[in-house]
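Example record used in the benchmark description.
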Amino acid sequence: MENNESFSWGSTITAPHMYPIEIHKGYLANDKEMITGYISTGTSTGDWGYGNNAYVGGKTIPTNLSLTWISYAEKKFWKIEAVLPHDKILALFKEGYMDKDRKGEWSHITYNDITVGLAPGGLVVVWLTGKKRSVEIAHYQAVETFVSANEFYRNPHEDTQEEFYDWSFKSEVPKETQAYIKENGIPVNLWNNYRTKYNYRFNIHFYKVDKESSDRRLRYVNGEEEVIEVKNAGSYQNRALPSYGRFFFSQYNAEVQFDGEEVLNAFKKISKNHPDKSIEIEAKVAFMYKTTTFTVKCEDEEIPLEKTVVKMWKN
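Model output (structure tokens):
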């Protein structure tokens, strides 16, 4: 791959969970031609960093991104015109990464998607994504724009712009998100704060003697993802905070879903109280592997992660 100058890729669009968006129009291009176009294919949401609306891609590396979309929760349209880091994208495609199959055999593969994330507040993040791997390559700030309801959709009922916004908010935004916005407002800075990286590690304690039996899989609140080899699992690393984890022990496995805001608030507090200190997420595996609890620790301070959802099963 290191000698290749072109790579086959597709493009996907994503938005934060429960904050849906919909594309109006756009494209990825290079200096000579448009490579792939974006059109409305319905509402996009899901997990931040993992696209669910797929578009045709290309083989040449894009240099320009253009997108206009509606953020239903905010009742507004956004637009981005950005120059992509061509050399960085090409270098990452060439570098690729190592992947282990079900037989335990490692092979050198590379990314297969350019994923564009669109968050409230106009934050735009671009990742290269592949099998069990996602890495941020750029982020941008979009500007608010105007698209009339008549231009955006057929508008058979001749809704006014405000009626269109209100109707879309009620029909497209989940009830839980509507309630959260009513009480707290839209957390427009949250996904930019998720991009902050901390020096930390997981420290796992077992009721009986045990160890991790396979490589650990982690997703992060900034949309990145990786597989960490067992031999490196206990080391401190500068990375984004976890949103999801798969842990494999000798007899049982754990699937963990973290609450992003809870983890972020815990790390903000503990890093403020202990500046420049390494932080641990302590995991305690309970008797008979009934569950695993997680606590953020630094020196003598501990903050339990009480909203973490853990599923344990026998392997």
